[in-house]
Amino acid sequence: MTVPAPRRTAPGRPPDRPYGRRRVGHTAAVVAALCLVAATAAAMPPAPAAPTGCGDLVRGQLCLRGPVGATGSYTASYRRDGPAPGEIAVRLGYQRKNSRITAFPGWFGTGRTRGGALRLGGRVEMLPGECVRGVMEHAETVFVTKWSCD
What we know:
single chain; 16% helix; 9 strands; 5-stranded antiparallel β-sheet
């Protein structure tokens, strides 16, 4: 049995493919579209996991709203998730810190949840560059949010 010799092609330019140019144009368009999508995604800020000033707890959410880094009116709120077997008494407040110290918590007061929620507020004296976070106390356990800084 004999094996035929391999076919040899003439040196020089490879034979034309009927779709060669279209494939290059298609590839360029796909690359350009991917670059546009990547540039758009890089320009968008990341979505926060929770609303600013809020922290998720085991059975609810604790929030502190106010002009971070400035003196003003702040509001601490707590909302229980799901059906609550009765109302609870909680103490709501805030805590400040700067580059040198972390202050003791300041309290807006103590209240009983209604419909699973409680909101208390007051005026907080803050200096530029300070951070603040929400604080809640229930049954001698203290819960806090993440620090919010300007």
